[in-house]
Amino acid sequence: MKVGIIGVGGIARLTHISDLLSIGQEIVALCDINPKKLEDAEELVGHPVNTYLDYNEMLADEEIEAVHICTPNYTHAPLSIAALKAGKHVLCEKPDSISVEDALAMQQAERESGKVLCCIRNNRFTPTGKFLKKFADKNGTFYAGRCGWQRVRGIPGKGGWFTTKEKSGGGPLIDLGVHMIDLAIYLMGNPTPVAVSGCTYTKFTDSELSNSVHSMFGDRQENGTFDVEDLAMGFIRFDNGACLQIEFSWASNVEEELVYVELRGEKAGIYLRNGVAKLITEQDGAMVSMHPETDGGDGHKNCFKHFYNVLQGKEERILTMEQGVNMIKILMAIYESAKTGKEVLL
Ligand SMILES: NC(=O)c1ccc[n+]([C@@H]2O[C@H](COP(=O)([O-])OP(=O)(O)OC[C@H]3O[C@@H](n4cnc5c(N)ncnc54)[C@H](O)[C@@H]3O)[C@@H](O)[C@H]2O)c1
């Protein structure tokens, strides 16, 4: 398909451009408000493309069939809606939006457009993520779990849009929570969230340390804004009685960076720690732990393949805006709970 990318900063350069080319889609247009980034991205594409400083001009190009949105969080809803209205299919970076109203408006715009809008959940699409889903579906109910992404020091784009609430929607909860909460809920069979409780903290605005490769995203801004949390802890209840503990930090005095999902089921337990999976079960009178030899990479590339296969009717869709709305409801309710000190019903 003929594809345009809006926003050619960190994630577009790291995955979207190269992965789109490697799966045989045709990049025909790039858009960014920063001309230098546009120039660098065109070089990375390796062939001439139409370039735009204004996304409205790009969306007016009838040749473009699908649009990837890789801009800061607060633009996801307006850009997705504009692209759908212009008759394009949309693959939008996570998080879906920075408010429940925006997520609902995206869902509504998708319904009215007859086009497809998917928000990226790359962790579902790694070989390990796909293996764990098959395992979870075959091994009964997973009724309780924990998930998180704790960084010791790994604040992205300090002072820039990532740490500015009106542009990001929040700190590590919205930035990293989308990844691991989604994977946990997906493996649990997508139960509906019904209540949440949470606390958030902001303690490291003055720290200049970084020991996480993941803090490379976003441009730093000296003397910029830092009005989001750097740690969020919480608890989610689901309609089927299941529960999930969560913790997400950009900066925290913990031993090491850890990205994890742990799920407890009657028949088995699932552990995923820093990309390495382990399955725990009882067999022939003994506890057994198994380590699947799967890979934790290519999440974006496989997510893109899924999106284009869905558009071509070759694959059943697994990324829905209903799930996206539920995710944003969870995140926003945790922020509300942190403010009020009370559990919030969804
Ligand atoms: N799925 C993942 O693993 C993953 C990883 C990193 C980032 N992301 C998401 O990708 C998005 C971008 O993050 P990033 O790290 O690439 O940020 P970034 O700041 O490096 O890049 C954003 C780009 O968007 C451009 N931009 C801003 N407003 C624009 C507009 N109105 N029109 C056109 N261009 C505009 C900026 O100039 C910049 O080049 C964020 O939503 C982030 O959450 C996802």
Q: How many domains?
A: 2
Counted beta strands = 15
Side by side, the strands of the main sheet go: 14-13-12-11-7-10-9-8-15
- Biggest sheet: strands, sense, closure? 9 strands, mixed
The CATH superfamily name of the largest domain is: Dihydrodipicolinate Reductase, domain 2
Q: What name does the CATH topology of the largest domain carry?
A: Dihydrodipicolinate Reductase, domain 2
Low-confidence stretches: none
Measured between the Cα atoms of the first and last residue, the distance is 39 Å
Bound molecules: nicotinamide-adenine-dinucleotide
Short description:
The chain is an alpha/beta fold. Helices cover about 35% and strands about 25% of the residues.
